[in-house]
Specification:
The chain has two domains: about 220 residues, Rossmann fold, CATH 3.40.50; about 100 residues, Rossmann fold (3-Layer(aba) Sandwich), CATH 3.40.50.1100. The protein has nine helices and eleven strands. α5 packs across α6. The strands form two sheets. It has a seven-stranded mixed β-sheet, sandwiched between helices. It has a four-stranded parallel β-sheet with strand order 5-4-3-6, with helices on both faces. The protein has about 350 residues and is an alpha/beta fold. About 50% of the residues are buried. The structure holds pyridoxal-5'-phosphate. The site of pyridoxal-5'-phosphate has 19 residues, from α2 and α6.
Length: about 350
């Protein structure tokens, strides 16, 4: 791994050009989706970030930390396992800074994401087989990252699953939300994968003594909160390993959403609010739909919508794809199960029945 670096990269390089557009995303009211519930809902549109997602924030923060600590310099080769939004965020920053970026992907990475990464000049390193012990591609990709770090004298691994610069980047996300809603936020709904968003927002809430309750929105089949691993079709939220950034006390409630409800949530969001968003945003909408009837009247709720929908046109927004996987186009209604956090024991949820709500 790192790191004897001949010269240094200046931190000011991160305060210039396209990188100045990271963060400061809009918060918009959603008046239509939850018109029957006596709550106010706002959406933080993270797809407006220049790389198209919330992951621009941690990508920038992890590179900044690397520069600050001397681990990233002009000769650095950034090496990371990601097939989605973080990869695009890193590719953008590395292009801007003139750094090499080797992105470790697997066959599940979409052609469109590969094309975006190549357009930014990222080098693609494809892992073709899952890890033989766990059967997981994520494990195989991380093993490959370690191999590449051995090979590159100036390799830098941002390590999105364990790097606290990832979660700290979201103090700013929560700060922006708090500034935009001076009356306070009662419930914040955010999708989880590395837990960077959840942890950063949760830390901010605790540091500032805010009343906000956090609802973690995970995928059925994700192991983050102790569920059994299972097949997941929609990328973005959920994880096949519990991230180092996870802590059991980060959220006040956890909702596990099926792929089908996630698709229904996305379609409902674009139908009602004309917001074309990615899969995890559909999961957030599904979770809020399930909980809305139980939220106190007048509650102010914020949905973090992590990315845009264009990269999901061939899946979530394709009737053919949806029919192939679910047999029908889900109706614009959904009620997802809710459980009280912290949750660390195995549990199952199929999204089909009434919410398994406890202690809310
Ligand atoms: C679309 C989308 N939603 C949600 C998440 C989860 O965010 P975090 O990694 O901060 O938990 C990700 C992470 O990659 C994502 O790409």
């Amino acid at each position: 791994m790192a790191n004897t670096i001949a010269s240094v990269l200046r931190l000011d390089a991160l305060l210039d050009g396209v990188l100045t557009a990271v963060g400061g995303t809009p918060l918009v009211p959603l008046r239509r989706l939850f018109r029957d519930a006596p709550i106010q809902v706002f959406a933080k549109l993270e797809g407006v970030n220049p790389g198209g997602s919330i992951k621009d924030r941690p990508a920038l923060a992890m590179i900044r930390k690397g520069i600050e600590t001397g681990a990233v310099g002009p000769d650095t080769v950034v090496i990371e396992s990601s097939s989605g939004n973080l990869a695009v965020g890193l590719a953008q920053i590395c292009r801007y800074l003139g750094l090499r970026f080797v992105c470790v992907v697997d066959p599940k990475t979409t052609r469109q994401n590969l094309s975006i990464l190549r357009a930014y000049g990222a080098e693609i390193d494809l892992v073709v087989e899952p890890d033989p012990t766990t059967g997981e591609f994520l494990v195989a990709r991380l093993n490959r990252v370690h191999e590449l770090l051995e090979r590159h004298e100036h390799g830098y691994w941002p390590n999105q699953y364990g790097n606290q610069a990832n979660s700290r980047a979201h103090h700013e996300t929560m700060h922006e939300i708090t500034l935009a809603l001076p009356g306070g936020v009662d419930y914040l709904f955010c999708a989880v994968s590395t837990c960077g968003t959840l942890r950063g927002c949760s830390e901010y809430v605790k540091i500032h003594g805010l009343r906000t309750k956090l609802v973690a929105v995970d995928a059925v089949g994700s192991v983050i909160f102790g569920d059994r691993p299972g097949k997941r079709l929609v990328p973005g939220h959920g994880a096949a390993i519990r991230p180092e950034l996870f802590r059991p006390d980060l959220s006040d409630a956890v909702v596990h959403v099926t792929d089908r409800d996630c698709v229904a949530g996305c379609r409902k969001l674009v139908h009602e609010e004309a917001i074309l968003a990615g899969g995890s945003s559909g999961a957030v909408v599904a979770a809020m739909t399930g909980m809305a009837p139980d939220l106190p009247a007048g509650a102010t709720c914020v949905a973090v919508l992590a990315d845009r929908g264009e990269r999901y046109l061939d899946t979530i927004y394709s009737d053919t794809w949806v029919r192939t996987h679910f047999g029908e186009i889900p109706a614009h209604s959904t009620r997802a199960p809710v459980v009280e956090a912290p949750v660390v024991e195995a549990q199952t949820a199929d999204g089909g029945g009434p919410p398994g709500r406890r202690g809310w």
